[in-house]
Amino acid sequence: MTGFLEILSKDLPTVIGLATFAGVILTAYISLKKPDIKFSQEIAVAKEGCVLKHQYLNKDISDIQKILTKIADNDLKHIELSIGSINERFARMEGILEERFQTKIK
User: What is the pTM of this model?
Assistant: First the structure.
């Protein structure tokens, strides 16, 4: 037993130095590896969020296109008909005024 204690006491600084060196290497590895893992997870979450945003934007743009098509098909035709009706009434009023005043209205 005394021989073991002598060897241990003689090599104790070497063993402590190796353990410390191994601890430093392990700590450096962990500190360099964890940010990469965390960063890759953040990138994955950001990509997923980006895909979802694009899907909603595409849906919104599609809805806007449908609304504009509906406006062009329906509302503009009604506006054109109303303007045509107004033009007819204006032409009749212009004719009546020309008859009453016997002059050409410009």
Answer: 0.38
